Amino acid sequence: RLVIGADGLTSMVRTKLYEWDVSAGNDGKSFQMNLIKSGSGGLKYKVLNFPPKIRLSSDPNDPTVLKPEVTYGIPSVGKGRKYLRLGILPSMESNPRRTALVVSKPDHEVWTKSSRSELVRYFEEQFPQIPVSEWISNEEADTFVEKKGGFF
């Protein structure tokens, strides 16, 4: 039988399996936590929500919109430590928004933006290929700079 316990760090499933294994005379090692180093460990992330049908290009003559079922990676023009990418997740067509992840090192410049205008100006500089003002609403920019974000 296969049991999948995706209930987090303090997994009740893993704890119970460990207890059963030990009570059966085994060492329980198969159910102990393992620390595995990851390249994404320690990275910071925040989420941006976009309207569902956003134009892909900042060219006003290009009507191409993002397809809801497609994942997109939008690279910034920044190089080296300034590089950033928007990871836009797919959504159901009826979903009223698109979600993008901003993921980078905790000391990246993007995390220093403390106002809506700073953030929008920064994204316009880093992503000149997209119509930033259509993608990021004032409310969303405010939320982004106010939230602390999470860590992997």
How would you characterize the overall build of this protein?
With 152 residues, the protein is α+β, with helices and mostly antiparallel strands. The chain has helices spanning 12-23, 116-126, 132-135, 138-146, and strands at 44-50, 72-75, 85-88, 98-104, 150-151. The chain has a five-stranded antiparallel sheet with strand order 2-3-4-1-5, with helices on one face. The chain is elongated and about 70 Å long.
What is the radius of gyration?
A: 21 Å
Low-confidence stretches: none
- Globally, the shape reads elongated
* Strand order in the largest sheet: 2-3-4-1-5
Give a quick account of the main beta sheet: strands, pairing sense, barrel closure: 5 strands, antiparallel
Q: Measure the end-to-end span.
A: 31 Å
Count, helices: 4
Helix content: 10-25%
| β-strand number | 5
Strand fraction equals 15-25%
Question: What is the averaged pLDDT score?
Answer: 90
Q: What pattern of helices and strands is seen along the backbone? A: HEEEEHHHE
List keywords for this structure.
152 residues, alpha+beta, 4 helices, 24% helix
Quick overview:
By secondary structure, the chain is an alpha+beta fold.
Provide the fold topology.
Elements: H1 12-23, E1 44-50, E2 72-75, E3 85-88, E4 98-104, H2 116-126, H3 132-135, H4 138-146, E5 150-151
Antiparallel strand pairs: 1-4, 1-5, 2-3, 3-4
Helix pairs in contact: 2-4
